[in-house]
Amino acid sequence: MAEFDSGMRKSRDVESSDVKVPETAHQISQDSWLQIAFILTTGINSAYVLGYSGTVMVPLGWVGGSVGLVFAAALSLYANVLLAKIHELGGKRHIRYRDLAGHIYGKNAYALTWALQYINLFMINTGYIILAGQALKAMYVLFRDDHVMKLPYFIVIAGFVCALFAFGVPHLSALKIWLGFSNFFSIIYIVIAFILALNDGKKALPRDYSIPGSTATKIFSCIGGFANLFFSFNTGMLPEIQATVKQPVVGNMVKALVFQFTIGLVPMYAITLMGYWAYGNETSAYLLNNVSGPVWVKAVANISAFLQSVIALHIFASPMYEYLDTKFGPTKGGAFSPSRISFRVLVRGGYLTINTLVSALLPFLGDFMSLTGAFSTFPLTFILANHMYLMAKKHKLSIPQKSWHWLNITFFSVMSVAAGVSAVRLILADSKTYNIFADL
């Protein structure tokens, strides 16, 4: 166990089941549970929260959305705690999701889990670049609504700034003070959006809270809304985050998760419900486009959303960075040696260039949230987590406990398929409505 508790490591292989697991070039076992809690809270209260009124509440309505927020949070906390409890399995710390799957199932599951996680994180990062671009465009429109600068241009600017940040922050543990800035920025745009939406709601005519669309559209939108719900609570990279926490790793991770799903949920719930109350089914996928108020106040909110998105993206890109640094990066020199900085510029810059291109091509944020929830969040956070826990603890679980886990596996498997169909349908519909490089 102690061999995993050093700081920076050279790349070499350690046997885990029949899968060779590389050690990491990044820092692990150095962070307090509170720092991990801030990482999780940064994710859950990222600029994505400005879209939940439109992408969760509008397709689900008051009853479905409100009940769904509580239901999805409870199931997400449960699934994440299960995963946290098997971080140390077989006498080893499994610092990556795919390592844990490989240890339990073998090589095929190792590769499949890595593919699912890569899709999940790539889609999340795509969403962050879209959000950052939307925030920049919204701020531009406040001062010059001349349509000269279009959304794809702002997405490119956002991708470039994200790349600059990635060059300067070598690994997840190095975020430290940036997590404080991230949560500060979150408070700014959430408080501003909440107050402006409250003022608009007080002055507005009666709102329409009915779920829009035909019967078929309502069904598919509802399924997509549920996928967005579960997407909003989960990272898809819990073992990688847990790898950075100090011993005792299980106890500290559970404390961080409890913080995330109690105190951390308050801002998210507040802005999601307030936005829907104020604008009904006219709520957009970026709440700051709905609110009215002083130009400078909205400008502050938008720039805060932009800066927070840059920091939050780094969290969800860190598993890919860790893989590239460990597999291909220089083994000599400090984190800021010329060779390592050059490597980050080349490799991380290339990765974010691809992300930025996809973001500019298809900037349909709500659709990507649904697709990500369907094809990766459900399998990684719920299906795999429950089944891996079953495999790890099968001799210690009673028949009712096993049945409960199988019920979870079955339910989320069905939800994953249904949400996938819904998301693809939504993307195809939006692709017909908008051209590529759309200026939304």
From TrEMBL:
Domain Amino acid transporter transmembrane: from-to ranges: 30-424
Protein location: Membrane
InterPro entries tied to this protein: AA_transpt_TM (IPR013057)
Residues spanning the membrane: 33-54, 60-83, 104-131, 151-170, 177-198, 218-236, 257-279, 299-324, 345-365, 371-392, 404-428
Organism in which the protein naturally occurs: Papaver atlanticum
PANTHER family membership: OS05G0424000 PROTEIN-RELATED
Keywords linked to the UniProt accession: Amino-acid transport, Membrane, Transmembrane, Transmembrane helix, Transport
Name of protein: Amino acid transporter transmembrane domain-containing protein
Keyword Transport in record: yes
GO process terms (BP): amino acid transport
GO CC terms of this entry: membrane
